[in-house]
Amino acid sequence: MKMGNLMGMPLDDPLVVAPGPWTRGIENMKEILLQEPGAVITESIVSEAYPDVRPRYSVDRWSRGVQNIRIYSGRELENWLDDLTEINQKKRYGSKTKIIASIMGTTASEIRYIAKKVEKTGVDGIELGLACPMGEGPRIVASDPALVFDFTKAVVDAVSLPVSVKLGAGISDMTAVVKAAENAGASGISAIDALRCILGIDIETGQPTLPTYGGYSGAPIRPIGLAAVAGVVQSTDLPVLGIGGITGCKSAVEYIMAGAASYGVGTEILLRGFGVIRELKDDLNDWMRERGIASSEEIRGAVLSHLHAFEEIDQNEKTAVLVEACRGFAEHSARLCADGHDGLCMAGCLCHAIQLSEDGLHIDRAKCDGCGLCVSICPDGKIQLSW
Ligand SMILES: Cc1cc2nc3c(=O)[nH]c(=O)nc-3n(C[C@H](O)[C@H](O)[C@H](O)COP(=O)(O)O)c2cc1C
Ligand code: SF4
Ligand code: SF4
Asked: What is the mean pLDDT of residues 80-102?
């Protein structure tokens, strides 16, 4: 038993396929259903399809961060209604996966209109994509608590399905927005959407990697997503779908420990294909079995009791100590550490507390102020803080 919860609905597995071009229509949805995730969310459906631009993706191969300039679905509402109806008539091709329609509109009445249409197809729930980070079309509604309330209430009052609200990380008052969604009757929160970005600039020509602002997603946004999810969980009892930079079992567990009731994967499918879904499910199963964990609920929110207000943090003095002798470079990854220069710890110590002499590396504890940088940067784990 692995359990998960999306908008109050129990899931067979906490893995949810996030909205994006990998869920762009019936062919992809069928492939996803074969992998049996707990739920799958369609690419955001709008009443007027947005044309595709070419190219629309760019990948930073070093960080595995991706910029996309694909706004919502390029398919007409009527096509989506046909696809979703067909999937439901075919009894979801034998899968227990919940099917969620992600929708967006420019006004509360437009989004309500789309919600009523998709409800008739037999989907299990509706997600409101209120935080798309690009384009001149729908605004980033999610930044404004009053708009979030209006859009959510319009849909909640019009349908009898659970409704969740998807937020981004660039919101200044996340608590107010979450409360607005909750007061309007939302059954869940999803966080985070992609972040507004310029992936890079060609410094010879001044050209951006892609010709407009785009959405940044993939591995590098995970720390931002984790903070957003923990913050949302601390401000509401609604179940939270945690998304952003999940690349494997470890990052899925991190989101659950941040309090997510289910976790979403998107860009990793774009980069590695649909097989990632099964791989992630199996890896999380193994991880839990090895630790005797029966349900993801047992570890959900594990980090929250360890997160403190800044004022409450322990201020005891600590200094760095070498726990293993070092000759000035990592034995296992010498190039990464020293690369012909000072070891990483020496180069980065702003207190000049680390020196190299003929008999090896020394840390002057009188100079060290315990910042922890060297501990974190040493690739061989040779330094610890002590007091
Ligand atoms: C190419 C692309 C298209 C996306 N389209 C949508 C969309 O239509 N609706 C939506 O709510 N989120 C959309 N997203 C955001 C993802 O669902 C997800 O929230 C975000 O990418 C962070 O997760 P990830 O790092 O696992 O991709 C899109 C993301 C990408 C990369
Ligand atoms: S970073 Fe680690 S391995 Fe490199 S010089 Fe410092 S202690 Fe040695
Ligand atoms: S903990 Fe900070 S100050 Fe102390 S030795 Fe390491 S890098 Fe220098």
From this structure: 95
Superfamily of domain 5-306: Aldolase class I (3.20.20.70)
φ and ψ at residue 257, rounded to 5 degrees: -65, -25
Checking DSSP bridges between strand 98-103 and strand 383-386, what pairing results, if any? unpaired
Class of domain 315-386: alpha beta
Whether the CB-CB separation of 296 and 287 falls below 8 Å is answered with no
Share of the chain above pLDDT 90, in %: 85
Same fold, 5-306 and 315-386: no
- pLDDT at residue 291 tops 50: yes
Closest-lying ligand 3 atom to the alpha carbon of residue 369: 3
For residues 102-131, average pLDDT: 96
Which residue's C-alpha comes closest to atom 7 of ligand 2?
382
Eight-class DSSP state of 62? T
331 lines ligand 3 (CB under 6 A): no
Task: Tell me the per-residue pLDDT of 40-63, one tens digit each, with 9 for 90 and over.
Answer: 999 999 998 878 899 999 999 999
- The yes-or-no verdict on residue 136 having pLDDT over 70 is no
**Are 100 and 127 spatial neighbours (Cβ–Cβ below 8 Å)?**
yes
User: What is each CA distance from 183 to 34, 144, 160, 173, 234, in whole angstroms?
Assistant: 37, 14, 17, 16, 16
Contact yes or no for 352/343 (Cβ under 8 A): no
Q: Is 132 a catalytic residue?
A: yes
